[in-house]
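Holo prediction. Input below; ligand is zinc ion.
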Amino acid sequence: MLKRQTSGSVVCPSCGRLVGVQEDVCPHCGRASPGLWGFSRVLQVLGQDVGFVKLIIGSCAVLYLLTLVTNPSGIGTGGAMSMLSPSSGSLFLFGASGAVPVFGYNRWWTILSASWLHGSLLHILFNMLWVRQLAPATARLYGPGRMMLIYIVSGAAGFLLSSTVGAYGNFLLPPFLRGANLTIGASASIFGLLGALVYFGRRGGSTALGQQAWTWAVVLFVFGFIMPGIDNFAHLGGFLGGYGMSRVLNPFKPEKVDHLLAALIGLVLTLAAILASLALGLPLVAR
Ligand SMILES: [Zn+2]
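Structure of the complex:
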C-alpha cells in the first residue's frame, strides 16, 4: 500500500489543483515540492481513515499500563477516584507536566507528553469515553489531520497555562483555582475538541452541535471546580487552544494533505517528548 508515485499528477497540498508529481514548484500557487516526493496519494488514503481515534485510545492505554508496571509498589489503591494510580515518580518519568517539571526541571517538552498519561483507572476511563464521543465528530467536521492538530495543540496550550500559573500565579489564587505542580491527562485536549465544536457551531456550521458542545464544556468545567484535584487551568487553556486553532484552521475549507502532514509531525514530536522525558528522567528518578 505504501507505494511511491513516480508519474502522473496529484492534487497540490496547498491549492488543491492538479500538478505533475515530478514538478519542483506548483505552477498555480508556487508551493515547493507539491507532489510530496510521490507520497501525496499515500497520505490521502491514510487521511480517510479515522485511525487517529484508535491511536489516541491505544497509546493512552499502553502508557497507563507502562506507568503502572514501572513502579508496582508505588501504585495507589485508596478510594474510587485514585484506584490503580501510578506513582508520581512514574508519571514524572514518562512526561507529566506542571510547574515542577516545566520550571523546576526545565522539562518544557512535557506540555506535549502529559496529555497521553493518566492518574487512575477512572481518570483514563472517563477521558477515553470523552475522546470516543468527541474525536470522531471533530474528525468528520475538520478532517482527521486537523482534528489531531487541534488535539495536540490544545493539550499543549492547557499544560503551558497551568504550569505557568502554577509557577508564578498561585500565591494570588484561592486553593480551588490554582495552576498545577504536577499534571497529566487528556482532558485539556478534550476541552480543545469541545472548543473546536463550539467554534464550528458559532460560525454557522451546526447550531445544535455547537450548543451541545458548549453545554458539555460548561458542565465539565463546573464539575472541575467541585471535584478536588482537577486541573482547571489546563481545562481553560485547552478550550482556548482548541477554539483558537479552529479559527486558524478554518473548518469551512476542505482539509489538505498539509494538515495531515502537520498532524504526523505533531505526533512524532509528541513521541519524541515522551522518549526525552524517559531518557533525561531516568537519572533523576533513580537517584
Ligand atoms: Zn498549488
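DSSP finds eleven helices and two strands in the chain. That is the main takeaway for now.
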